[in-house]
Amino acid sequence: MASRSADSSGSSPTIDTVSLAIIEQLQEDGRRPYAAIGKAVGLSEAAVRQRVQKLIDQGVMQIVAVTDPLTVGFRRQAMVGINVEGDTESVADALAAMDECEYVVMTAGSFDLMVEIVCEDDDHLLRVINKRIRALPGVRSTESFVYLKLKKQTYMWGTR
């Protein structure tokens, strides 16, 4: 059975081809019954349930409802590029703790961090950027990219 092994730091769990197939089944339909998944991948319902729970416990995946933020009252989204002076990781941790920050990634290039923010309106976005993000120790500068329209949001990249 082929598997994906830990990276050089040893932090990634090993995922075999059956678990990858389970992940692909759930990416197609997160509500697919475990019995149907078991039939597709050659396992019992109970074995699928155990593997799914293990994948969730290991942080390999999560099963969530994905919404269009506009339809649930969040009228403003933005990607914010942040340049940091000093410890980038501590700033990333502080951003990750903010409810409005849905996505935080450390990057190479023009910005040290990229953060996706979801807010109720422009005033809320301004408060988050001006009063909270720019106030963090180490934040040197920010550049905001306000979303005008969501054209695609999917998590169907498979497991390659």
Question: Nutshell version of this structure?
Answer:
The chain has 160 residues and is an alpha+beta fold. The protein is built from five helices and six strands; from the N terminus they run E-E-H-H-H-E-H-E-E-H-E.
Descriptive notes:
By secondary structure, the protein is α+β, with helices and mostly antiparallel strands. 34% of the residues lie in helices and 21% in strands. It is built from 5 helices and 6 strands; from the N terminus they run E-E-H-H-H-E-H-E-E-H-E. A 4-stranded antiparallel sheet has the order 4-5-3-6. It has a two-stranded antiparallel sheet with strand order 1-2. A hairpin with a 6-residue loop joins strand 4 and strand 5. Helix 1 packs across helix 2 and helix 2 crosses helix 3. The protein is elongated. The relative contact order is 0.15.
| Number of helices in the DSSP assignment | 5
Amount of helix: 25-40%
Unreliable sequence segments = 1-10
Instruction: Give me the strand/helix succession.
Output: EEHHHEHEEHE
- The helix-and-strand class reads alpha+beta
State the separation between the terminal residues, measured CA to CA: 15 Å
**Beta-strand content bin:** 15-25%
**Sheet with the most strands: spatial strand order:** 4-5-3-6
Shape assignment: elongated
Measured on Cα atoms, how large is the radius of gyration? 19 Å
Please tell me the overall pLDDT: 89
Describe the largest sheet. Answer: 4 strands, antiparallel
Identify the quaternary structure here: single chain
Strand elements, count: 6
